Amino acid sequence: MRSIAWTTTVVAIGAALALPAGLAFADQPTSYLPVALTESFDEVKARMEAAKPEVMQRQMNLLEERYDLSDRPMEGVTATRGKAIQDGVRVKLPEGVTWSDLAAMTPEEIKAKGLWPKGFLPLPHPNHSEGGMVFPQFHIDEINRQEGRDLTRFDMDLDLPDHLLPEYPPAMFLTTRKDLGDVSRGQVVTIMNYHELFNGILNPKQLEGLRLLVTPFPQQQFNQTEDRRSALPSRGVTCFDCHVNGHSNAATHLVGDTRPQELRHRLDTPPLRGVNVQRLFGSQRALKTIEDFTEFEQRAAYFDGDPVIAQKKGVNVLDRGSQVHFMAEFQAILDFPPAPKLDLYGKLDPAKATRQELRGERLFHGKARCAECHPAPYYTDNSMHDLQAERFFEEQMVNGRKASVDGPIKTFPLRGIKESPPYMHDGRLLTLADTVEFFNLIQGLKLTSQEKEDLAAFMLCL
Q1: Total-model pTM
Q2: Which of 123, 202, 376, 462 is most enclosed, with most CB atoms within 10 A?
C-alpha cells in the first residue's frame, strides 16, 4: 500500500489513505496530491525502507536490460577538470538486429515488429509512481560534509552509475570574468564558501543572487512535514543541489507540468551554462525568461507544481523585483566551457581541427541535419520540436512510466555537450554515440558507421 505516494486517480488515493468510500469515485482522475495524511511518519518510513531493495532492484534490472553500463572511457577525451568521457553506443539492440537493419526500416515496420530499442523508450524515474528529487551519492556526501544537511532519501537512490554522470565538482565559468577560468577553484559552491570564493568578483546584486541559489528552501521530499522523504526534518534543497556550480550533477526528478503521474517525464537536470543566450526554459513549459522559471520553481515546481502542497510544506515566495532579479542576474553570467577549436562564429578553426572533426562538422550542417535545430554559434534555435518518437513503438507501461507521446521538447544548446551526460530531456541516452544512433533513426538519415563516428567527434569539440 502507498499511503502517501502520488496517485493518479481518486480511487487510488482513497484506497491508499483509507478515505471514506464516499470520497472515491471510480475512474475519476485528479490533479491533486493528498493533503491530510492517515499514516504516521514512522509507519511510512518503515514501509518504504522495507520496499527500497525491491524498488531499486526492479530499476537496475531495467537499466541492465536496456544498456551496457560498463566503465569504458574514451582515450584522451576528458571534461574540463579531467573526468573521462564515456565511449561507445550503450543502448542494447533487440536480438538478431543491427543498427543498419533498423536504419533500413520504416518507422511503421519497426513498430509492427517491436524492434524499437528499449533504451530509446522514455526512461522511468528510479521509482516513477513516487517520483521526486533524487541526488547522486557523491553530492549527498559533499553537502553533508560542508553543511551537515542530509539529502539522503530513505525510499530510493539515484540509479545511474557515477561514471556515466557529469564531472564532479564541475568547473564554473563566468561571461564577465573569462580571464579567471574556473572560478569555483575546484570546490562545490555552497552557502559555506560562496562569499569567500566570489567576494570581489561579483557585484553586490550578483553576490546576493548566488547566496539565494545556494540557500536551502523546503521542497516536496525535503522539508519539515511528516510526509517528507528524509529521515530527519530538513531545511530543504538549493537550486545548486541539482545545478551544482551552475552546471549539473544529473540529479533527477519528475516534471511538474504533466498529469497523471505515469505520463510525467523523468527530468535530466540541464546545465545553467549559457542561459543568457536562451529564450525558453523548462523542457516543455516554454517559460519565456529565466526570471519566470526561477519564480515558478520556488512557488510550485519544488512541490510537483502543486501550490496547495507548497503552502503546507513551506513555500518560499520570492520578491520578483529584488530576489528573483538578483538570482537571474547571476544565472545570466554563467558561461559555457572553453572550446579552443571553435572560432568566434562557433565554427571549427581548420588550423586546429582534425580531418575527422571537420568531416563531422560538414555532416552536422549537412546530411545529418543537426543544424536545423542546433545552429552555431550556441547550437540551439531557441525553439521547441516534436520528434514524434511514438511512430516507432506501441504505447506501453514500463516501471510505472507510460511510454507514450512526448510532445514538443525544448532545443537545448549543444555547447559543452560532452560535459553533461546523460542526454535527452529524460536522460535516456547515456553517451553521444547513443544520441547519434537515436537521431539517425528518428530523422531517417541512413548515416554510415564512419559518418556516425565523425559526427560524434565534432560534437566533442563544442
Answers
A1: 0.93
A2: 123
CA distances 15 to 1, 21, 23, Å, are: 8, 8, 10
- Angstrom distance (rounded) from CA 128 to CA 422: 18
Q: What is the largest CA-CA distance in the chain?
A: 75
Cα 249 to Cα 210: distance, rounded to the nearest angstrom: 18
| C-alpha grid cell, residue 94 | 533487440
Closest CA to 157 of 165, 148, 169: 165
Inter-CA distances, 89 with 104, 106, 370, 392, 457, Å: 19, 22, 19, 19, 14
Tracing cell 507521446 back to the chain, one arrives at 405
| Per-residue pLDDT tens digits for 111-129 | 999 999 999 999 999 999 9
Look at the block and give the residue holding cell 546530411. Answer: 367
For residue 10, pLDDT beyond 50: no
Report the candidate in 162, 208, 207, 211 with the shortest Cα–Cα distance to residue 191: 211
By the 10 Å C-beta count (0-12 exposed, 13-18 middle, 19+ buried), 179 is classed as: exposed
For 40, 183, 392, the CA distances from 179, given in Å and listed in that order, are 55, 10, 48
All structural domains of the chain: 1-39 (no CATH), 66-125+339-459 (1.10.760.10), 137-331 (no CATH)
Which residues pair with residue 401 across a beta bridge?
Answer: 398
pLDDT of 417 above 90: yes
β partners of residue 287: 281
Alpha helices in 300-429 (DSSP H): 307-313, 325-331, 355-365
pLDDT at 275 over 70: yes
Q: Which helix (H) or strand (E) holds 209?
A: helix 204-213
Beta bridge partners of 385: 409
Rounded Cα gap, residues 340 and 237, in angstroms: 35
Q: Name which of 52, 46, 47, 45 is nearest 228 in CA terms.
A: 45
Query: Taken in order 408, 414, 415, 419, is the CA torsion positive or negative?
Result: positive
- 58 phi and psi, to 5 degrees? -60, -45
Give the number of other Cβ atoms within 10 Å of residue 53's Cβ: 9
Q: How many CB atoms lie within 10 A of CB 291?
A: 19
Q: How far is CA 354 from the centre of its chain?
A: 32
Report the C-alpha gap between 5 and 228 in whole angstroms. 11
